[in-house]
Amino acid sequence: MTSKTIILKLGGSLVVPKEIDVLYLKKFRRLIQKYIRRGKRFIIIVGGGYTNRWYRDQAQALGVKNHNDLHWIGTISTRLNAELVRTIFGKTAHPRPYWNFSRKIKWTKPVLIVGGYLPGHSTDYDAVRMARKFKSRTIVNISNVSSLYAKDPKKFKDAKPIHQISWRDYRRMFGNPRKHLPGQNIPIDAVAALHSQKYKLETYYVGGRDLKNLDRLLSGKNWQGTRIY
Q1: Does the structural domain 5-228 have CATH classification 3.30.420.40?
Q2: What is the 3-class SS of the chain, one letter each residue?
Q3: What is the pLDDT of residues 55-112, one digit of tens each?
Q4: pTM greater than the 0.90 cutoff
């Protein structure tokens, strides 16, 4: 974490696990402000979380089947969550969330909040786009899961965490589709994984609930999670 600018993908399940997690967001803000005082800048890409799932499920219950329509629901939900996260940083954040990547942006504040751009992928890929745009080779992806596992730890008690894995092996393990389907439930979406491998980006996949662990990662100390390269 020697770079001045840190690309951080904030999982929507941390922002809105079901209700908006006010306590978590306050603690998250304090942690980010700690590093802002040390001269760091953050690009924070916000996921859709329960907001996305709830709207998507209700749309499907109403008979919506078109994948593009369902994708748009997910994309707009990330922008709503991004607006919420932007407001908690006040004047330290760029005054509007950034989501139209076709437009140039003059970013001078310590924090830039990013929402989803277009259908066809999750905000994992938007994080890849931001890394490319701002010439970073590293993404911190914080999730509600502590690390990657070869098996679902909720179903298998003997599931062991994966500490390091290549993008090639990641794609073999979690599937290798060329397209992202609405609600696709894998740790990092297929489109993002494909492009991360192509551009030789590395991702630190870390559980966001344990903010002390995230703090250790940001400070360059021993941390728990998975490095994907």
Answers
A1: no
A2: CCCCEEEEEECHHHHCCCCCCHHHHHHHHHHHHHHHCCCCEEEEEECCHHHHHHHHHHHHHCCCCCHHHHHHHHHHHHHHHHHHHHHHHHHHECCCCECCCCCCCCCCCCEEEECCCCCCCCHHHHHHHHHHHCCCCEEEEEECCCCEECCCCCCCCCCCEECEECHHHHHHHHCCCCCCCCCCCCCCCHHHHHHHHHCCCEEEEEECCCHHHHHHHHCCCCCCCEEEC
A3: 999 999 999 999 999 999 999 999 999 999 999 999 999 999 999 999 999 999 999 9
A4: yes
